[in-house]
Design a protein that fits this description.
This protein is α/β, with parallel strands linked by helices. It contains twelve helices and twelve strands. The chain is globular.
């Protein structure tokens, strides 16, 4: 069942004379379903058919009371979720491994972070009423969201899960989100959906308020191709995709037994994180085989597999693993804990200058210094860059020659 895709297809088949946006008039290859807000096509931010029915099917699949389609990726979802839970001046418990989009949201909302460096620290802040956790992580580790949700309930807090990389999990019977109040998923990362298409699931929020907040951070001309791909992707997963994903997941289990890889904790069944003495070099070796991984760093190769990977693809991949250097990753120092000097908002909107990283000791970061991917900041806006952070960047091989932006005055 594809309420949105079907409505767009039926309308396009009428060959309507389009005296409206978009300018291609549906005549470019592959753009026949790309409309603007019209009677037969609906409006993403006003509710009603066909969006309401398409979103309801997603909500039912994930076990939430509602779902909002997003065309600005999980970034739009993270901003929307925090806007639903926080007001200016509030504090939010935020795991330090969060995506850089959350750091930008703090500045836009004028919200203060309380960083969670270790999961046990959740118990220490019963007065903070919003918790934002990332699961699964970029490396594929799935947190115990149910345990975290019990802590949140006990403290009367709302729990947001940035599950950008976990849109496939509920289809595979993996309970990765139960107990959360809001969950953000990038469908385009792990499902057959167009780039930037994402989902915001919510429990017991007013749908009108969710749409209003989402519209703050999204285009007023959202892509119908993206939203139609969300509708189509869910239907394909239910009809055929689950079996295809399980086929690939079984292969990943075998590879974890054969090749050095991340094996501890609860792991995403569709993500393979291989370990290597030099992950970046191993990635270059794979590129010579015309294979491109999701991410590499000093000690890891991160690969995202889906049900669209054919047996031929998997065979080629396996043979390539046998040629590259895998093994124990190098030991890295623990993530530093920089001292904060300014709020996120003050730092991001302050006058700034660009400097080489090595010239920034003692200066205040005006943007997130985040190796990308995975986009997890080592230094957040408003934090002071010390020799400890510089040493860490040298050790991990930070992939940016200049800092980005630092404050004009220290």
């Amino acid at each position: 069942m594809t309420p949105l895709y079907t409505a767009l297809k039926q309308f396009a088949d009428q060959n309507p004379l389009r005296m409206c946006m978009p300018g291609h008039k549906g005549k470019l290859p592959g753009c026949g379903l790309d409309f603007t807000e019209l009677g037969p096509t609906g409006n993403l931010y006003e509710g009603g058919p066909p969006f309401e029915e398409a979103q309801a099917l997603w909500a039912e699949q994930f076990g939430f009371s509602g779902c909002q389609f997003l065309t600005g990726g999980s970034t739009q979802g993270v901003h929307t979720a925090l806007a639903l839970c926080c007001k200016p001046g509030d504090r939010v418990l935020l795991d330090r491994g969060c995506h850089k989009s959350a750091f930008a949201a703090l500045a836009l909302l004028d919200v203060e972070p309380v960083w969670l460096w270790e999961p046990a620290e959740l118990e220490e802040y019963p007065d903070v009423k919003t918790i934002c956790i990332t699961s699964p992580t970029y490396y594929g580790e799935i947190l115990d969201i149910q345990r975290i949700s019990r802590i949140a309930r006990r403290n009367g807090a709302k729990l947001i899960v940035d599950g950008a990389h976990g849109a496939h999990l509920p289809f595979l019977g993996t309970d990765g989100f139960s107990g959360a109040d809001l969950v953000v998923c990038s469908a385009h990362k792990t499902l057959p959906a167009l780039g930037q298409s994402a989902l915001l699931f919510y429990q017991d929020f007013d749908p009108e308020e969710v749409r209003r907040r989402a519209a703050l951070y999204g285009s007023s001309s959202p892509s119908y191709l993206m939203t139609a791909s969300l509708d189509w992707a869910r239907d394909w997963m239910v009809r055929r995709g689950i079996g295809e994903y399980r086929r690939v997941a079984e292969r990943i289990v075998g590879w974890r037994d054969r090749f050095p890889s991340l094996r501890t904790g609860r792991l995403d069944p569709m993500r393979l994180t291989l370990t290597s003495p030099d992950g970046n070099r191993a990635a270059l070796e794979l590129e010579r085989e015309n294979i491109f991984v999701e991410m590499s760093d000093r000690g890891h190769l991160v690969l995202i597999l889906t049900g669209l990977d054919t047996e031929e693809d998997l065979y080629k991949l396996e043979k390539s693993f046998e040629k590259i250097r895998l093994g124990d990753p190098p030991s890295l120092p623990p993530l530093p804990r920089p001292a904060r000097s300014l709020s996120q908002r003050e730092a991001l909107f302050a006058p700034a200058e660009f400097l080489p990283l090595e010239a920034c000791e003692g200066r205040i970061a005006a943007e997130a210094l985040a190796p990308y991917p995975p986009g997890i900041p080592v230094v957040a806006p408003g934090e002071r860059i010390s020799e400890k952070e510089l040493a860490y960047f040298r050790k991990i091989g930070y992939n940016k020659e200049r800092t980005g932006v630092v404050m004009e005055c220290s």
